[in-house]
């Protein structure tokens, strides 16, 4: 099925490994007293697979973490932030973002702008960033949760990169 083909291509599972994984996953989930997920797609998929009631809690946040902060970074730098894991399916969107910022800098040389990337970065993305190096792109790695909240609050623009063909959780 489509889900298997996606996993097979992405993780290079053999068919036997995939069946073993699926059997173990379903065995554990069928014994569970409750199953909770954060996306409607996963809920529907698991209900179909397991014929079991699945609870949905939408991916949320604590509003207290994101109260309007009057002490935000008041520098002249426009800071674009991405926080999360960067995977190969993000390369196209990342390239478009970098190209757009490059055009802004070319047309407005006095405008101070940077892109800060926080979080884990998978191998194909690190290779892309090395080959497509720009001085305004900073790869800053993983940071503690409290720092992420502060970074997001202080950013000028928060970017979400996604793959239109991906189902389930965006992270």
Could you tell me the mean pLDDT? 80
| Ends apart, CA distance between termini | 24 Å
The topology string of helices and strands comes to HHEHEEHEHEHE
Q: Estimate the helix proportion, in percent.
A: 40-55%
What is the makeup of the main sheet? 4 strands, parallel
Low-confidence stretches: 1-12
Q: How many H/I helical runs? A: 6
- Order of strands, main sheet, comes to 5-4-3-6
- Tell me the fraction of residues in β-strands, as a range: 5-15%
Helix and strand content put the structural class at alpha/beta
- Coarse shape: elongated
Task: Give the tally of β-strands.
Answer: 6
Query: How large is the radius of gyration?
Result: 20 Å
Explain the overall architecture:
This protein has 171 residues and is of the alpha/beta class. It is elongated and about 60 Å long. The strands form two sheets. It has a four-stranded parallel β-sheet with strand order 5-4-3-6, sandwiched between helices. It has a two-stranded parallel sheet with strand order 1-2. It is 43% helix and 13% strand. The N terminus is likely disordered.
